Protein 1
Amino acid sequence: VSFCLFSLATLSIGFLFFPFFSLSKNFCGEAKRSKSKVRFLKQKFSIKTNSPSANLNKPHFYVLSKGLNSGKPLDAPCPNCFIITCKSEKLRDQLYWLCYGMWQSKAFHIYLRGSVIPFISIVEFRKALKEAFSKVEDDKVKFDKSVNSLQLLEQKQKQFYNSIQLIEEAKRIVMYRYIKRR
């Protein structure tokens, strides 16, 4: 009885093993397609660790790599950042807003390492950005609508911030006038 169970188990494992090869062809085919897509993306932009001595003549921006704000796009370099260089200004803006949206949605938090000062490795950052960029390439219209919404919200946030600063200044002036009278 135990021999029959053993041979039955071996047969069922064998049947499960052979379909693996047919599935592995699909996985390998997808891997080949994704590698060609990565090569295509590599031609459009590059991500490197920032070097102060770098000579930049292509459109570029910086991305913070350390701290809880890792992934935040910047216009000026800082000590702990990556630099993304692009082929065109349009692509630079598209990638900038993609990074901004990913940073706002905390999409980079799952890649953070380190216990005291969290950071994102350049390999993980490349992987996350290229994956997100390939999704953008698939549906540019929806992405453009999202970017327009983000830009409007950013503009409103700046207006509210300026209003709050004016209110704070008005409070100081009111109290200053009251104190100065005495």
Note: The two ends are 105 Å apart (CA to CA).
Protein 2
Amino acid sequence: MLMVCHCQKALALTSIALEDHDFIPPFIPGVFHGTIKHENVEITHEDFINKTDEQHHLPNKTSPLIVISGINMVDHLPFEYMHLVCLGVMRKILYSLMKSSNYKVPLSATILDQLSVRIVNLRPYIPSEFGRKPRSLQELLRWKATEFRQILLYTISLVFPKFLSCDAYNHFISLHYAIRILSSRLYACQQLQYAKSLHKYFVSNFPLVYSLTSLSYNVHGLLHLVDDVELHGPLDKFSTFKFENKLQQLKKLIWKHDKPLQQIARRIFEKEMAMKVKEVCNYPVLKKASCINSALPLGMENPIYNSIEFKHFKITQKRQSNCVVMENGDICVVQLIANKFGKPHFLPGSSQVIGIHCAKDFSQAQLLPVSEIKNKALMIPLDPHNGDESFYVAEMLHSS
């Protein structure tokens, strides 16, 4: 038996049949044999124009984009990962943990409360680059895309192992690994095919872990995400996160109800003119200098700075913004920032291929140049209540 998924990029012929469920076409009732095999027939731009897959097109309707010269209706219209993965697949997975019917992995109310507490307890460790602090699962229906992204890219392996079955966790972590690879230009260059195999594994096993009825267009779309990254670069290069953030800024430019478009255009023009006369900022930039009377470590001198700004992130001495990854892979914690010789105190640790680290044992204070900072990272204590001094470190990807 075959299930045919009509998609803008492929015809997916799936060796599966559905058990005792009423579906609209193209689903075919039958018996689920415990596996899914995807045999995609890739669709080209010419196939799209000629409407080879009639099920994908509305009758007597043609996209106005076709007449625009230079647009490839397949390659130039990638799957957008904010909606496909964060608001689509991630929301479906977390919702399945809370809903008892039609899913195989619902968690009890007690377990969900413990999981929510674990998520909310991460709030003090989330850096300022994250638009929102973690919220309870009870507010899941009001979660924004950035909250799903924070779970997916950074804290899955820290929060979920104790609450999910082995099969469910291994399935979930495969999506985590794949999306972290696709979110980084470096990791994507090195491990693109590995990410593709992870997505195939994730999609093929989705009905085994959750339910057959949970299969959706978004889940199938993961199979094409690697091809889009190969053509267009890391996921954030063609995601709508930056446009969603900009929308709030545009709203603030409107001072009255009359002629909102003209107001926005004028405010943007004024900002652009101001930027032309503004001096070019040479990063990194030291901020908020102050002097302290107490003795400084050898090689450091006043003034002491509260923060240092890079192009895509800011480092401070606060615990939610003081962890960095150096060019040589060392995990470092910033304790003091000084102008000339002052450099951070470091926390070395082993690194992993997708920027997830386990760090422990503070080293002696060292002086290293700011130019060696590769990226900012989250650093969260693993189990401080039981005397574990190890830290979970996740290199930040969405700001790099």
Note: The longest helix spans residues 185-209.
Protein 3
Amino acid sequence: MLVLILGVGFTLVAILLRAELMRQYEERALGVARSVAADDVIVRDVAAHERTPEVQRRAEAVRRRTGVLFVVVADDHGIRYSHPDPDRIGQRVSTEPEALSGAEVVTFERGTLGLSARGKVPLLTPDGKVAGQVSVGIAADQVSRRVTGLLRGAAGFAGIAVVLGVAASVLLARRLKHQTLGLEPADLADLLREREAVLHGIDEGVLAVDPAGRVTIWNDAAARLIGCLPAPGTPIDDAGLPPGLRTLLIERRAVRGVLVATEDRMLVVTAGPVRRGDHDLGHVVTLRDRTDLDEMARELDVVRALSDALRAQAHEYTNRLHTLSGLLSLGHRGEAEAYLRELADDPLATEYSDGGRVRDPYVRGLLAAKTAVASEQGVDLRLSADSFLPGQLRFPLDVVTIVGNLIDNAVAAARAGARRPAWVELSLVAEADILHLVVVDSGDGVPAAAVDRLFDQDFTTSADDARPHGVGLALARRLTRRRGGDLTLTRAAGADCGAVFVARLPGSIEPSPATREAHLSAAVPGGAS
């Protein structure tokens, strides 16, 4: 194919070059003819029809000086006054004397001296009459020799260019082969189609950077989870990535299941290097939304907590039934009746009761479970007297996560604190569709040095290494902010209590016909615990 292209191109160049040279030689012949026609001696002798040797001498002098094939001067009848072959002087010209009409003519035709490029100019007397013509010819083989010489030079340059082009093509092919890891164009096309299908066909976010630390690949899920859409080739530092994710990519660490916080999400990150043979292709990160994954986990946590509460209550009931059975079997009927009355008046310590102030089943289930678990740990979890939640939650799973994490942290703080008895008080207050949440514990409070970092991911004040820490408060704050609210530490420590956390969740409560006044008028004084 390359040879064919070169052959066709070279042929076109030869044709165009020959045509251009023919035009130039015709113009040259015409210029020589004009100079001869301007000779006053030649004009005078031809106009007088005097066939003098001077015309032949002057014409031949011009021919030898310019190197043309011939310079022929003829009168108005076409009779030659000069010719390279003196024997032809006095004869009629072999071609049509077109210039006798008074116009200049350029032609390429054959005469007595062969094929030539010709220029013909009329001989004009001072009064403007046509006295004859001057015909100048340049041999066609001279044109051919010139074309051949130019083509040889062009062929030499073309040959050098072809050799250089082939060498450059080989080097370029090797470089491309190296850069494409030996893949052919069809393989690259298939790989691109597969990559697009995989990237946009999964729910997990995928983000990749090259060895130079520039973002090269991401999918729609990654842009949604991260909250930004970097342009191709953007450096990691300028891509607007969350700090934790940016650190992982800069350090190029291989991690699995690491939590990274964004403005409103908690992401599970898996990262690792990508290699093909000995080639380093960069780093790839997959992102999963923990807040989405936790939706089912939250329900499972509530069910598990309820199960633990039922187990604790069943154990307590079994003990009390055994006691009652023993009294009856020993015949202590009076003591048994008194014991039954005591049980009727004193519900189980682990039993949760809110006096009907909390209507949402998710929150009720969570509080029942957390109360039982806290009781097993020696912590009294109680609901404040002013708590009132008459409506249903619009996004119960988020609220359950926020409340559950705050209670877990408060129970752990109360258990580790010096105050006894250990307690945690929870306040849930509905104001229109806004839920106000306050959690107070009896712990030792938050150290002053830890206040600024309390809501940072992976930061904890707990000394217990048996379970993961540094996630609950960070997740709770992000969930509240994602819902348009906020979670703050209003008191790090006090004289009569430990830390005080306050959360505000707008738009979290469905409208309810119940009113706070109606509830308070019917509520039992003192609340429930």
Note: The chain is about 45% helix and 20% strand.
Protein 4
Amino acid sequence: MSTSVIVIVSESRYSPKHYLYVTDELKESFNSSSPHASWDQVAQEVRQVVLKHLDSGRDVIPLTHSFGGIAMSEAFKGLKKQYREKQGLKSPILRLVHMSAMVLPQGQSYIGQMEPGTPKEELDKQEKEMQAKYGGINV
């Protein structure tokens, strides 16, 4: 039976030193770099780390914090048990652990999840929703 691994996907402004109290016992498996320039770069790097563990027969439990939830949304696509089993692969993502993390619905962006902050933004949002729903107004 394989041993599970926990992959920590941190908040965008944090570096590995912020998690040292968590990782002191896990130093041998801890491998991360400083904050990255973009979420897609983080997602690619996270996916590589996760696949390395999955391909070695280990189940993975990702722990995401804040921005890490965004990277996780992209990085872990197709790695759940049901998808991996269809491909004849045994080690899956077992569970997702979100620690104050943002989880985006498929096709959404971080900005798309923001609530309007001013009355004008609220009106603009309502207008866009009405145009999408009713196709605009014919005068």
Note: The helical segments are 20-23, 39-55, 68-75, 81-86, 119-134.
